[in-house]
Design goal:
By secondary structure, the protein is α+β, with helices and mostly antiparallel strands. The protein is built from nine helices and seven strands; from the N terminus they run ββαβααββββαααααα. It has a single domain (about 1-255), classed as 2-Layer Sandwich (Beta Polymerase, domain 2). It has a seven-stranded mixed beta sheet.
Length: about 325
């Protein structure tokens, strides 16, 4: 589905337009045109390609999903791939949405699958929050969308922080396989996030350095703000990955300590029982000539000796905290 909006022009306010009007609007430097392709079909791409004369490689990248975040600069436009990230409704993990941008001198074309709150919210707020001056072009519209997308990264970080705190508490309270599964799940999520954010950081660095002439020098400060936010999120992800590595080490240490304590307990009881079994074994031998076999109270003396020896050993192991 193709949605078209004429966001600003010297002759009229923002309004919807039809695809038949694109020829006149694309050639009008005073207009700002936004074209949104939602769940596009091959026919939609064909019609857009005819109107804007996009490079075939850029169109191919826009049609293929799961592209790496990147920016490709062409003669009359540049192509950009960015990802939106949201926390799942159940609070477990996150979901991503790939959005492709075609940016020209007076137009912005967005390509995505499914509903995108950032795009629709940005276009809806365009008339209220963006000054209609010389910088009110596709660059500032692109900035507004990217800024809304990056702002949604922070709730994801907050969720990761909460899960990390919960994990650390669980490790020292109970441990168990649940804590280990949570560690690896969080590390997997952070790795997936970093695979998205690291290329986005490099891409925004290129944009913020004014390497893209179509954006204009006056908008570089805006993209520098987006770059700073992406850099902040990336650094936070690296920090949480280090915390999870430390949490994994702590889990292994706690598990090892628990195992050592179990081994100490088993060893202590083994020594106690072996000592008692030694006495019982000595007096259980079937030799005729053995001293103390005919004592009247020999049985009770042996039991008393075994009890005394067991109590002494138990007290000793208790003192050294093996029991």
């Amino acid at each position: 589905m193709i949605q078209l909006q004429l966001l600003s022009t010297k002759k009229a306010d923002a309004r919807s337009v039809t695809i038949d009007q694109l020829d006149a609007l694309v050639g009008d430097p005073d207009s700002l045109l936004w074209v949104d392709l939602v769940d596009p079909t091959p026919d939609d791409f064909r019609r857009i390609s005819e109107e804007f004369n996009f490079h075939p490689l850029a169109l191919e990248d826009a049609q293929k999903r799961h592209q790496r975040p990147k920016i490709d600069i062409y003669n009359e436009f540049f192509f950009l791939v960015f990802y939106s990230v949201r926390v799942n409704d159940d609070g477990e993990g996150f979901s991503t949405q790939e959005i492709a941008f075609f940016i020209g001198s007076n137009y912005l074309v967005t390509v995505h699958h499914g509903h995108c709150d950032e795009i629709e919210g940005t276009v809806r707020r365009w008339g209220e929050n963006v000054p209609r001056e010389k910088i009110s072009g596709p660059a500032i519209l692109l900035y507004s969308i990217l800024d809304a997308m990056v702002d949604n990264y922070f709730p994801v970080l907050d969720t990761v922080a909460e899960r990390t705190d919960e994990l650390e508490q669980r490790i020292f309270d109970s441990g168990g396989h649940e804590a280990l599964e949570l560690i690896f799940q969080l590390r997997k999520n952070l790795l997936a996030l970093r695979r998205i954010l690291a290329p986005e950081r490099d891409m925004m660095s290129i944009v913020a350095r004014r390497d893209v002439e179509l954006l204009g020098e006056e908008t570089s400060i805006y993209f520098q703000d987006v770059y700073d936010h992406v850099l902040r999120v990336t650094d936070a992800i690296d920090t949480y990955r280090d915390l999870l590595s430390s949490a994994l080490d702590a889990y292994l240490s706690v598990t090892s300590n628990n195992l050592n304590q179990v081994m100490r307990t088993l060893t202590s009881w083994s020594i106690i029982l072996m000592s008692l079994a030694l006495i019982a074994g000595i007096y259980g031998m079937n030799f005729i000539h053995m001293p103390e076999l005919k004592l009247t109270y020999g049985y009770y003396a042996a039991l008393l000796g075994m009890l005394a020896l067991g109590a002494v050993l138990f007290a000793w192991f208790k003192k050294i905290k093996w029991l």
